[in-house]
Amino acid sequence: MSEEGLRDLLGLGYQAVVVCLETPSWKQRVWYGLWVIRCVSLDGKSDRILVTVRRSKDDGDKPRTFRTVNGVFNFLHTLGFRTITIPMEQGGSVAHNLAHHGATLA
Question: Is the pTM for the entire model greater than 0.70?
Fold first, then answer.
């Protein structure tokens, strides 16, 4: 799913779920790790992953990954989230629901 698709689904009540794929480490005043964002319906029946706009005919769509806490934070903030929690252990995940933030999508 594209960023535009993510924005649309968040507006319909879907959650943005941040998933930690690699436990971060602290380097040069920045947390580096590996995170992806999934878009999940409230009933859990629909689950999509944010992908990059680059496509390869051999590999298809590639999940968009974030390498720093700052990257995850900035991305979620641009979507309208004002309270952001980021999992800091591999396998951890945290759901964010835009309805709890009161802001409209930018």
Answer: yes
CA angle 24, 71, 94 (to 5 degrees): 65
The tens digit of pLDDT for each residue in 35-93 reads: 999 999 888 888 888 786 555 666 677 889 999 999 999 999 999 999 999 999 999 99
4-7: long-range pairs with CB below 8 Å, 24+? 5/39, 5/48, 6/37, 6/39, 6/50, 6/79, 7/79, 7/105
| Number of independent structural domains in the chain | 1
From the list 102, 103, 66, 105, the residue with the least C-alpha distance to 87 is: 66
105 in a structural domain: no
Instruction: Determine, yes or no, domain membership for 106.
Output: no
Host domain of residue 25: 3-100
Phi, psi of 86 (to 5 degrees): -125, 125
23 domain residue, yes or no = yes
Residue 75 located in a structural domain: yes
